[in-house]
Write a structure and sequence with these properties.
The complex is a heterodimer of chains A (470) and B (708). With 470 residues, chain A is of the alpha/beta class. Chain A is 39% helix and 14% strand. In chain A, helix 2 links the parallel strand 3 and strand 4. In chain A, helix 1 crosses helix 16, helix 5 crosses helix 6 and helix 9 packs across helix 14. Chain A is globular and about 70 Å long. The longest helix of chain B has 22 residues. The chains are: A alpha/beta (470), B alpha/beta (708). The interface between A and B is large, with 36 and 35 residues.
Chain lengths: 470, 708
C-alpha cells in the first residue's frame, strides 16, 4: 500500500504549493534552505537550482525557509527569482525574523531604545546560549519544532540542509536523532574554515566544533563550493573524506546576456560591478582611488563610467553607510550607484557593460558566485581581490582577465587600463571562446551530479526502499 | 502633505547620504524637519529642503531633570532636552514619520512614538523612505489611523507617575541615609534590607547602593559598607553590571589597604559571567572573567600581607564559587594520560629531571644526593634558562584560555618546549606548585612519573586550580597542616583518581647549627626570617614586652631581611606599625638587628630561645634551625591552621606550642629560669630536631618516594 501524504497543516507563515502533496508515491525530501527565493540573496540561486534538481531527480520537495517579511528587513525580495522555481516544489515559510534588523522603533523595548549597543550584545548572547551562531542561534527551538512537526505530518525520506545559517544543523540533528532521516549538508562556504581570514574558524573542542563533527559524521554527503574548502574538511575529518565533494555555485544561463556587447567608441566605456558591498571601506576606497587615477590619465578611459549595482547595507544601515558616502563623493569620476538588480534583469545589466569589476573579499577559500557570471559573460574582467583566491582559479583560463593584484591602488589602476584595452581590442571570437569555456560552470551542471549521487545513495538503502514501495 | 521629523543627537556622520535623502523627500513633496541635539547650523542639507531645529540647552531644563541629566545615558540625555521643548512636541504631533538618525536618538523617537501613535517611527533613512512610500500608496489608511490613534498611549501616563514617584523616593532615600541613621546598627540593617528588597530595579539598587556604601566608607565603616554592597547586588539582574560593580569596589578597597568582605561575592559574579561566556563558546570573555577572579580570590594582600585570610578561615567556602562554576571545573578537567607512569627500565640509571622556574633554595641537598647516586642520572630544567621561551611561563591568561579551550597555540608552544624533557625523563620532580607545574600538566606525560612539591604559599595562589591532577602522580607536601589546607581548598585532591599526597619535610642538614652558646644567650630571643608579614614580628614584640615586664634582661635578636612594605597598602600599614615599635624597642636596647646573613649558624650562637611567631608556616625552617642550635623553641599555634585537622601541633612536640604572648613568656621564663634548665631544654630540642628533621633521616623518605 502506498503511503498517502497528509496535509502539513496551517501553522506556517505562508505555504506556496499544496498543503497535501499529490498522491504520486514519489519519495519526499525536505530542503532546509533559509534564503530560498524570493529572498534577494546570492544564495537563493543555488537553493533554487538544488530544489529544482531534487524535483527533477524524482523527489517531492518541500522547502523550509523563513517568512518574506524577514527578507524585507535584510536585502529585500526579488520575486523574479521565484519564477523559475519548479511549480511542483512546495515552500513552507516559518515565522522567524532577525530582531536586530528590525527598523520599526515601536517594536523596540525601552532598554533597546536607551542602550542599543548593550541590547545588541545581549541579543547575540541570547542566540549563542541556544546554538553557537550569533544572529540565528535563538531560532533553534523553533526550527527543531517546525521540522519535527512537518515530519510528523508528512514524513521525510531525505533532508537536505544548506548553511548558513548553521543553526539549521540543530534541526537536522534532531530529525536524525529521533527519526533517522538521512541528510545531506550543503556547507557551501564551510563552517570551521575562516573563508575571510583563512585557517580554522574554531577548534574541534569548541561547541561549534563538536556540533560540526557529529553532524558531518552521520551525513550522507557533504557539499562545499570549492576545492580549498573541501580540502579543509578532508584534512579535518580524514575518515569522512569520501563523503565530501565540491559542488561549485556556477552561474545561471539566464543571467548571462545572449550576446556580448561590443564597445561603442563614440561613448565612454562602461564598467560595472554587481553584487553586495561587504568589503572593508579602505579596500573599497583603494578601488575608487585606482579608478580615479586610471580615468584621469588614460585616454581609453575618457568619459568612462563605473556602475555599482546591488545591495549596500541591511536594516537601518541600508544605503546609509560609509560606502554610500564614498560613492556620492566619486560621482564626479563617473561612479554611479543604481541600486539592487532583480534576478530577471541581471542579463540586461551585464549586456549594458563593457567591463566587469569583480570585487571579492577573502582569499584562497573564497570563490563567490559572481565570478562564474563574470566569466560566462565574455566580457573583460578586472579582479579586486587577493591574488591567492579561488576566484583566480576560476578566472585564470580567461584571456580577458586582467589578473588579481590585491588592493594596491597603483596596480588596480593598471588593471583598469588593461581592461580598457581589452574591451577595445578583444574580438567577438575571443569573447565567444571565453563564454564557451565557462559552460562547464553552468549551475545545473554543477548541482545535478551531486543530487543524482545522493538520490542513488539514499534510495538504495534497503529499509528506505522497502518503505517507499510498501 | 507628508511630514517627516528626523531626530539626531549630533552632527550626522554621513552628511551626503542625509542631504541626498532629504532632497529626495523634498522632491516628492514631503516636508522635512531635522531636530538635533547639536547646533543645527552644523547640519548641511540643500537649501530650502528641510527645516532645522535645535533642542534647548541643558541649563534651561527643570532642576530635577538637570540633576538626572548628569548621570543619564546619552539616549536619555537627549530625551530630557527633547521633552522640555514645546516646539518639538508640536512638530512630533504633526509628523507622519518619526526617524531616528543615530543610536542616541532612538530613545527620543521611541518616547515620541508612544505619545504620537498615528505616526510611523523608524530608525534609518532607507526605512524612512519606505515608510513615506507606503503612506503614498495608501493615504486613506493613514488618515484613518490619525483619527483612531489619538492621544498618547496610557503607558505614558503610567511612566510619568512612576518617574515622579521614583524621584520622590530618591529624595526620601537621600535624607534617610545620613550619619544619624547609618551610625546606628539598626539603621544600617534597615538599609541592607531595603537594598535587598524585591522590585527595587537594578538602576536604583546600584544608585542607592553606591550612595550608602560611599557614606559608610566615609564614616570609617568598611565592613558595613561591604555588607550593604552585598545586599545591593544580591538581586541585581544585570550580570555584567553586578560583576563590574563588585570588582571595581573590591579593587578600590584593596588599594585603600582594606580587605573587602565581599571578595567571594565579587568572584562569584565574575565566574557567573565566565560560565555564561563558556556556554556560548566565547573563550575570550570567559578567559577575561576567569583572569579577573585571580586578584580577587588569590590576592597577596588578602592572604600573604594580612594576619588573617578568608581562605584560611573557611577554605572550602571561600573557593566554593570557583569549584561550583563550569569555568572552574573546565580549568581542572582531567585530561588523563595515554599510559600510567611506569618504573624506569633496569638496564640504565633512573633519569630524574628537576623542573624549576626560580626558587631552588630548598632543592640543594636533594639534588646533591641524587647527583652523587650512580643509580640516578640527574638533569635540571629551569624555565629561566631559556630566555626566548621563558615569557611563556608568565602568561597566566594564555594558560587559562588554553585550559578552557582544550588546545591553543600557547599549548602547542609549551608542548614543543617541554616534550623533549618529558621524553627523556623517567621521573620529573617539580619544585613549587606554581605556573610551571600547571604548564607541565598541559602536556600528556606519557609514561613519565610526575612529582610536584608544594611548600606553602602556593596553596593560596590560583595555580593548584590550574593543574591537571590526573597527570600528577605524587603531590608532596612539606608539612601536615599545608596538606590538609590544600586538600580543603582543592577538594578534588580527595576524590578518586587524585595523586598520592605524601608529607616529606624539607631537606636540611642540621648538624652545622650545633655550636656552643655563651651563657648570656639565655636571655636572647631569636627570630630567624621576618621578611613576610605572615612572620608577624609584632607578636614577638608582645612576647618581649611581656617578658621585660617581668625581667628586663630579655632581649630580641632579629636575623634576616626585614619586612617589605612596598607590595601593597596592607603590607605598608603593617610595616608602619612594625617600624614604629621597633624604633621604640631599639631605643630601649631591647632589640638587636642582625639583618641578612650568610652565616645563620654563627648568628644563632647568640640566641637562647628561638621563636616561631608566624600566622602561617609550612614547616618553619628557621625555627628548626634554631632548635637544632640548642635554643629553646617557642612556637605560636599558627592561627591560620590552629584548631584544624592539622596545625603546628601536628609538627612539633606539644610543650613547644603556645597560644598567647603571655603563655610564650611563661614558657620562656620557666625554661630559662636557670642556666642549667635552659641548656637542658635546649639540648632536648636539638636532639629532637636532629632525629626528626635532619637530612640524614629524611633522605630515606626521598629515596622511598623516588624509588618506589
Amino acid at each position: 500500500m502506498i503511503r498517502r501524504p497528509r496535509s502539513i497543516g496551517r501553522r506556517w507563515a505562508r505555504v506556496t504549493g499544496p498543503r497535501r502533496r499529490p498522491d504520486t508515491g514519489r519519495p519526499h525530501a525536505y530542503y532546509l534552505a533559509i534564503g530560498f527565493p524570493p529572498a534577494a540573496k546570492s544564495c537563493a540561486y543555488r537553493m533554487r537550482e538544488t530544489a529544482n534538481q531534487l524535483y527533477a531527480a524524482g523527489w517531492d520537495v518541500t522547502v523550509i525557509t523563513i517568512c518574506q517579511e524577514a527578507w524585507e528587513r535584510e536585502f529585500g525580495l526579488d520575486h523574479s527569482l521565484s519564477a523559475d522555481v519548479d511549480p511542483g516544489v512546495r515552500i513552507v515559510e516559518l515565522p522567524l525574523m532577525r530582531e536586530d534588523l528590525d527598523t520599526d522603533v515601536r517594536n523596540f523595548s525601552e532598554r533597546r531604545s536607551l542602550l542599543p549597543s548593550e541590547w545588541g550584545v545581549e541579543e547575540v548572547h541570547r542566540h549563542l546560549e541556544q546554538f553557537p551562531e550569533p544572529r540565528f542561534g535563538g531560532w533553534r527551538p523553533a526550527l527543531e519544532a517546525a521540522l519535527l512537526d512537518l515530519h510528523r505530518r508528512d514524513p521525510a525520506d531525505l533532508l537536505v540542509t544548506t548553511c548558513a545559517p548553521y543553526v539549521n544543523l540543530s534541526a537536522t540533528w534532531r530529525l536524525w536523532q529521533e527519526h533517522r532521516v538521512p541528510y545531506v549538508v550543503d556547507f557551501r562556504d564551510g563552517w570551521s574554515v575562516d573563508v575571510i581570514g583563512g585557517g580554522e574558524a574554531f577548534t574541534k573542542h569548541s561547541i561549534s566544533g563538536r556540533w560540526e563533527a557529529k553532524l558531518l559524521d552521520a551525513a550522507v554527503a557533504v557539499w562545499c563550493v570549492n576545492d580549498p574548502i573541501a580540502q579543509h574538511y578532508r584534512e579535518r575529518y580524514p575518515e569522512l573524506a569520501e563523503k565530501i565533494s565540491v559542488v561549485r555555485n556556477g552561474y545561471d544561463e539566464a543571467s548571462v546576456p545572449a550576446v556580448t556587447r561590443l564597445p561603442d567608441p563614440a561613448e565612454g566605456l562602461r564598467f560595472g560591478y554587481l553584487g553586495t558591498l561587504t568589503f572593508q571601506p579602505k579596500l573599497f576606497a583603494a578601488v575608487l582611488d585606482a579608478w580615479r587615477a586610471a580615468r584621469a590619465d588614460d585616454p581609453l578611459l575618457a568619459g568612462a563610467t563605473l556602475d555599482f549595482r546591488g545591495h549596500i547595507g541591511a536594516g537601518s544601515a541600508r544605503e546609509d553607510n560609509a560606502y554610500m558616502e564614498m560613492l556620492s563623493a566619486a560621482h564626479a569620476d563617473g561612479v554611479r550607484f543604481g541600486g539592487p538588480v532583480p534576478k530577471a534583469e541581471v542579463a540586461d545589466v551585464y549586456a549594458s557593460w563593457d567591463v566587469i569589476l569583480l570585487l571579492v573579499i577573502g582569499g584562497r577559500f573564497m570563490t563567490s558566485g559572481k565570478v562564474y557570471e563574470a566569466l560566462a559573460s565574455g566580457l573583460p574582467v578586472i579582479s579586486a581581490h587577493e591574488a591567492e583566491h579561488d576566484a583566480s582559479t576560476v578566472m585564470s583560463a580567461s584571456p580577458l582577465w586582467t589578473g588579481a593584484v590585491g588592493f594596491d591602488p597603483d596596480l588596480l589602476a593598471a588593471s583598469f587600463r588593461a581592461a580598457a584595452r581589452l574591451a577595445r581590442e578583444a574580438t567577438a571570437e575571443d569573447r565567444a571562446a571565453v563564454r564557451a569555456g565557462a559552460l562547464r560552470y553552468a549551475r545545473a551542471a554543477q548541482i545535478e551530479p551531486a543530487v543524482r549521487h545522493v538520490t542513488a545513495t539514499v534510495l538504495k538503502t534497503p529499509v528506505l526502499a522497502g518503505e517507499l514501495s510498501a | 502633505m507628508t511630514e517627516v521629523l528626523i531626530v539626531t543627537n549630533w552632527i550626522p556622520g554621513r552628511p551626503t547620504v542625509l542631504a541626498d535623502t532629504v532632497q529626495q523627500l523634498h522632491d516628492s513633496g514631503v516636508r522635512v524637519t531635522i531636530v538635533s541635539g547639536c547646533d543645527p547650523e552644523k547640519i548641511s542639507v540643500p537649501e530650502g529642503t528641510a527645516t532645522l531645529h535645535g533642542l534647548p540647552a541643558v541649563k534651561s531644563l527643570p532642576r530635577d531633570d538637570r540633576a538626572e541629566y548628569k548621570r543619564a545615558v546619552k539616549g536619555r540625555k537627549l530625551w530630557l532636552r527633547a521633552r522640555a521643548d514645546r516646539k518639538l512636541r508640536r512638530l512630533a504631533g504633526a509628523a507622519d514619520v518619526l526617524v531616528a538618525l543615530d543610536a542616541n536618538a532612538l530613545h527620543t523617537v521611541w518616547q515620541l512614538s508612544r505619545r504620537y501613535r498615528a505616526s510611523d517611527a523608524v530608525v534609518g533613512l532607507a526605512p524612512a523612505l519606505a515608510a513615506v512610500a507606503r503612506r503614498a500608496e495608501n493615504p486613506s489608511r493613514y488618515a484613518r489611523r490619525r483619527v483612531v490613534r489619538r492621544g498618547p498611549s496610557p503607558v505614558v501616563a503610567v511612566a510619568a507617575v512612576r518617574e515622579r514617584a521614583d524621584r520622590l523616593v530618591d529624595k526620601v532615600a537621600r535624607r534617610g541615609s545620613g550619619r544619624r541613621v547609618l551610625g546606628r546598627p539598626g539603621g544600617r540593617r534597615a538599609w541592607e534590607l531595603l537594598l535587598d528588597a524585591p522590585g527595587l530595579g537594578d538602576t536604583r539598587r546600584i544608585r542607592w547602593g553606591e550612595q550608602i556604601t560611599e557614606r559608610l566608607l566615609a564614616m570609617g565603616l568598611p565592613d558595613a559598607a561591604g555588607a550593604a554592597r552585598i545586599a545591593a547586588t544580591r538581586r541585581l539582574h544585570a550580570r555584567a553590571t553586578k560583576a563590574e560593580w563588585l570588582r571595581e569596589a573590591a579593587t578600590a578597597e584593596l588599594e585603600a589597604g582594606r580587605i573587602p568582605v565581599f571578595l567571594r561575592e565579587a568572584a562569584a559574579a565574575e565566574l557567573d559571567l565566565a560560565d555564561k561566556a563558556l556556554a556560548r563558546d566565547d573563550l575570550t570573555e570567559a578567559t577575561r572573567s576567569v583572569s579577573r577572579i585571580i586578584p580577587l580570590l588569590f590576592n597577596r594582600a588578602v592572604h600573604f600581607d594580612s594576619l588573617e585570610s578568608p581562605s584560611a578561615k573557611d577554605p572550602a567556602g571561600f573557593l566554593a564559587p570557583l569549584h561550583r562554576s563550569k569555568a572552574g571545573q573546565a580549568l581542572v578537567a582531567p585530561r588523563g594520560r595515554r599510559t600510567p607512569a611506569v618504573a624506569p627500565p633496569g638496564d640504565r640509571p633512573h633519569r630524574l629531571l628537576f623542573l624549576t622556574r626560580a626558587n631552588e633554595y630548598f632543592l640543594g641537598d636533594i639534588r646533591e644526593r641524587y647527583d652523587a647516586d650512580p643509580r640516578f642520572e640527574v638533569r635540571r630544567f629551569s624555565l629561566l634558562d631559556d630566555e626566548e621561551r621563558e615569557p611563556l611561563s608568565r602568561q597566566t591568561g594564555k594558560l587559562v584560555r588554553h585550559l578552557l579551550a582544550g588546545n591553543s597555540e600557547y599549548g602547542d608552544q609549551v608542548r614543543e618546549w617541554f616534550a623533549p624533557h618529558i621524553e627523556w625523563a623517567d621521573t620529573i620532580f617539580v619544585d613549587w606548585c606554581l605556573g610551571h607545574a600547571a604548564m607541565l600538566t598541559t602536556v600528556d606525560p606519557g609514561s613519565t612519573r610526575i612529582i610536584v612539591r608544594l611548600h606553602s604559599y602556593e596553596a593560596f595562589t590560583v595555580f593548584p586550580h590550574l593543574i591537571d591532577m590526573s597527570r600528577v602522580d605524587d603531590l608532596v607536601f612539606v608539612s601536615e597542616p599545608l596538606r590538609e589546607f590544600t586538600l580543603d581548598v582543592a577538594p578534588r585532591l580527595r576524590e578518586p583518581g587524585a595523586p598520592r599526597t605524601p608529607v616529606i619535610t624539607n631537606a636540611v642538614k642540621l648538624d652545622r647549627y650545633r655550636r656552643p652558646k655563651a651563657d648570656e644567650a639565655r636571655f636572647n630571643l631569636g627570630l630567624v626570617g621576618l621578611s613576610a608579614i605572615a612572620k608577624d614580628p609584632l607578636w614577638a614584640f608582645e612576647v618581649l614586652r611581656e617578658l621585660r615586664r617581668r625581667d628586663d634582661r630579655y632581649k630580641l635578636v632579629l636575623i634576616g631581611k626585614e619586612i617589605d612594605g612596598s607590595p601593597n597598602a596592607t603590607a605598608a600599614a603593617y610595616h608602619r606599625r612594625f617600624a614604629a615599635e621597633l624604633e621604640k624597642l631599639e631605643g630601649q636596647g631591647a632589640v638587636r638587628r642582625v639583618g641578612q646573613t650568610d652565616d645563620v649558624p654563627a648568628a644563632l650562637t647568640d640566641v637562647g630561645v628561638i621563636l616561631s611567631t608566624s600566622v602561617r608556616e609550612s614547616f618553619h625552617l628557621g625555627l628548626i634551625e634554631g632548635a637544632a642550635s640548642g635554643a629553646v623553641p617557642v612556637v605560636r599555634d599558627w592561627p591560620f591552621f590552629a584548631g584544624g585537622k592539622a596545625s603546628a601541633r601536628s609538627i612539633f612536640p606539644s610543650d613547644w606550642i603556645v597560644t598567647t604572648p603571655q603563655a610564650a613568656a611563661d614558657r620562656i621564663m620557666a625554661q630559662t629560669a636557670t642556666d642549667e634548665s635552659w641548656r637542658k631544654a635546649g639540648e632536648a630540642a636539638a636532639a629532637h630536631a636532629m632525629i626528626t628533621w635532619d637530612w640524614s633521616v629524611t633522605q630515606a623518605e626521598y629515596d622511598r618516594l623516588l624509588l618506589s
